[in-house]
Design brief:
heterodimer; A: mainly alpha; 4 helices; B: 185 residues; 7-stranded antiparallel beta sheet; 3 helices; 43% strand
């Protein structure tokens, strides 16, 4: 405890801190997918579906800011025209 | 009063590496020390269009901006939420990020656009980054006199932070390159 104190005290927890582990799992998976597949033209499907679903479930439970949770529920992304693509609902 | 800033920067790394680094910029724990104003980054929404290789993502970025005491007094908080929308076009190799604040809009509006494209002089090896930031303080009568000072401060902060951002990007690019040359070549 004593040794790490200096780094630890910087940030008090935010509302989405309970999702930190699920967030890290999803972001790691996404980053790997992006640099190993997407940029090489393998964009036929997205990986990380189960990581995303777990993380998103946690967010919808903990995200306090109303402005932000609006984006969670929105099925559209607020840029350009969006084309409807059903996210692969993995079994 | 709107202040707008344009910056251009060339990364001597290919677009694939630079755009990968951009995703990792805020999340990488090693960078939290440098980009200490970034508190949390959450992905709220994402969508892939497999027919044309476009990826749309919305992320929430929580920024800790303590600022001078009178700002805290006025706005009553020192946490600011921003929403970042990203479009990556895999086919044309282009990444565009637009970030806006959603809290404190009564007082200030900041919009930052960053675009990463292959550099025309060396499309397979370099990436050009074009960045545009506009900052607008709402001219409330009581605040009007100090608004300009605040605006200036915010602008300075942004320029400082984008320099820090580049430093972080360069570092991530280097390790991604080291990683990919070790694995695939």
């Amino acid at each position: 405890m004593g040794l790490l104190n200096k780094e630890k005290k910087a940030s008090p927890p935010s509302s989405t801190s309970p999702c930190a582990n699920l967030r890290a799992a999803y972001h790691n998976c996404f980053n790997r997918w992006y640099s190993e597949k997407f940029v090489k033209g393998q964009w036929d499907k997205e990986d990380c579906v189960s990581e995303w679903q777990k993380y998103k479930a946690c967010l919808s439970e903990h995200l306090e800011d109303k402005h932000l949770s609006r984006f969670l529920e929105a099925d559209e992304v607020p840029v350009e025209s969006t084309i409807r693509v059903d996210p692969a609902t993995a079994a | 009063m709107v202040k707008a800033y344009k910056q251009e920067y060339t990364y001597k790394h290919p677009w694939e590496i630079v755009s990968s680094a951009s995703w990792r910029k805020f999340a990488d724990p090693e960078n939290k020390r440098i980009l200490s104003h970034i508190r949390e980054v959450d992905t709220l929404n994402h969508k892939l269009d497999p027919s044309c290789g476009k990826l749309y993502t919305t992320r929430a970025i929580t920024i800790h901006a303590p600022g001078p005491w009178f700002i805290r007094k006025i706005v009553g908080q020192d946490i600011c939420h921003c929403v970042e929308s990203t479009v990556v076009d895999g086919q044309s190799r282009s990444m565009q990020l637009t970030t806006r604040n959603i809290s404190l809009q009564k007082f200030i509006e900041v919009e930052e656009k960053i675009k990463y494209d292959p550099h025309p002089d060396n499309p397979s090896g370099w990436t050009i980054c074009r960045q545009e930031t506009s900052i607008q303080i709402r001219p409330l009568s009581a605040l009007a006199s100090m608004a300009e000072k605040v605006e200036q401060r915010c602008a300075e902060r942004f320029v400082q932070n984008s320099a820090k951002g580049r430093e972080v990007m360069e570092r991530i690019c280097k390790y991604l390159e080291a990683e990919s040359s070790g694995i695939t070549l």
